[in-house]
Amino acid sequence: MDRLSGLHTFVRVVELGSFSAAARSLELAQPTVSKQIAALEADLQVRLLNRSSRALKMTSDGERLYARAREILNALDAIELELHGDETPTGRLRIACPLTFGHRQIMPRIGAFVARYPKVELDFLLSDGMVDPVEEGVDLSIRVGALRDSALVAKAIGASRLWLVASADYVVRHGTPTSIAALAEHPCIVYAGFARSPDWRFEGPDGPESVRARNAITVDSAIAMRFPVIDGLGVALAPSWLFSTEVEAGSVVRLLEQYTRPPMPIHALYTSRQLLPPRARAFMDFLAEELANDPHLHPVSMASAHLEQSPDAGEVAKP
Fold this sequence. Notes:
The protein is α/β, with parallel strands linked by helices. The protein folds into three domains: 3-82, Winged helix-like DNA-binding domain superfamily/Winged helix DNA-binding domain (Arc Repressor Mutant, subunit A, Orthogonal Bundle); 88-157 and 263-308, Periplasmic binding protein-like II (D-Maltodextrin-Binding Protein, domain 2, 3-Layer(aba) Sandwich); 162-254, Periplasmic binding protein-like II (D-Maltodextrin-Binding Protein, domain 2). The protein is 37% helix and 24% strand. The protein is built from eleven helices and 15 strands. The strands form four sheets. It has a five-stranded mixed β-sheet, sandwiched between helices. Strands 11-8-12-7-13 form a five-stranded mixed β-sheet. It is globular. The protein starts with a helix and ends in an 11-residue tail after the last strand.
């Protein structure tokens, strides 16, 4: 087995959270992916992943290899871009991305991209609905959460952490929940994009725990969670970047910080690796670079956490 291919496959399994999702992304059969990981472990004489029926978790050796492998693959991408440096990115680039993520995380960053690539014309389609890239003429799609089974090529560019939050005023009036089970007594503000299950599942000091969320308010857009949370109407499970400013200011507080959820992967999707225009690759690499410098979206935060098996059916979140 080509060791570089094995490293690439290992990184895809880690970042997508399952062998099946990695196989779809790499356009390989799932047994091939499993064999490549086994061959890499045999070649390096270490176990990289602990497997169970429900989840994957990296070993300490796996964590070290992931960090170095990601550096190697990023360096190769940069070299490829340098070799094609004469292909100055130009023309119209149509980008689809989730409404809230686009509004809060992408639009504030595009000034730096425009300064670097002034000949690229950006056209954004911000929507929480599913977008057909062919029908809509989309060059690049940004998605947050588990991916649908599709023929699109996916590149992981970051990961979004989830926090349990409530307003400081809510905590004063209703108290701070001291356990996951205690959340059942609190009104919950729920984003419908997370609703593949009514249960909120966490990894805690004593292992996995779950609670049935009592939906007081359900919204179909992640940004709509902000208003009821800030107004003190209940507890929410939300992307950390959605409330990071308020948490730093103290108007919103984190709850049960010792309990964690698997971060949601962030991907750039496109239709063909061979036909990806330089302007699309430039934006994808730019965004990956930007997210790598954001503590709420850094891909390493996902790699070092417990990895949940990506469901084969449907995206679970597009905040």
